[in-house]
Amino acid sequence: VILRTSVRTLSGAVVRPHGDWDSRKIHIYGELVVGERVLERLQLFYNHDHASFEAPFFVPLPSDAPDGITLRVVAADPSNGNVGVEEAKYPVLRERMPFKKP
Fold it and tell me: Max CA-CA distance within the chain?
């Protein structure tokens, strides 16, 4: 699965490489969280085709994440201390094949 996100400033300006708000100067990463535990830290790469930041990750098994997963994106500017965090929760469902009628 691919985590895809766009990052904007509070004023709505898009953060991107070589832009007015240069993403090369900002720490942007994702986290895969189950419960209170961070399972994986995702390095986000800029995709010019989609104008977004992306990172692939593996979805845990439903037995490993019974309450689902949380995807968190963090953007932090170390030069001035500004930080933005956004989270989204998703259920982890068992993969099911469609039932074939005889």
Answer: 65
At CA 85, angle to CA 84 and CA 86, rounded to 5? 130
Q: What is the pTM of this model?
A: 0.83
Tokens of 47: 């995709």
H and E: helices and strands count for the chain: 0, 9
Q: Which two tokens stand for residue 74?
A: 């963090």
- Yes or no: say if 33 and 46 are a contact pair by the CB < 8 Å rule: no
Can you tell me the distance from the alpha carbon of 87 to that of 16, in angstroms, rounded to the nearest whole number? 20
Residue 60 to residue 34: CA distance in whole angstroms: 9
30 token code pair: 């994702």
pLDDT digits (tens, 9 = 90+) for 19-46: 888 888 899 999 999 999 999 999 999 9
**75/9 Cα distance (integer angstroms):** 10
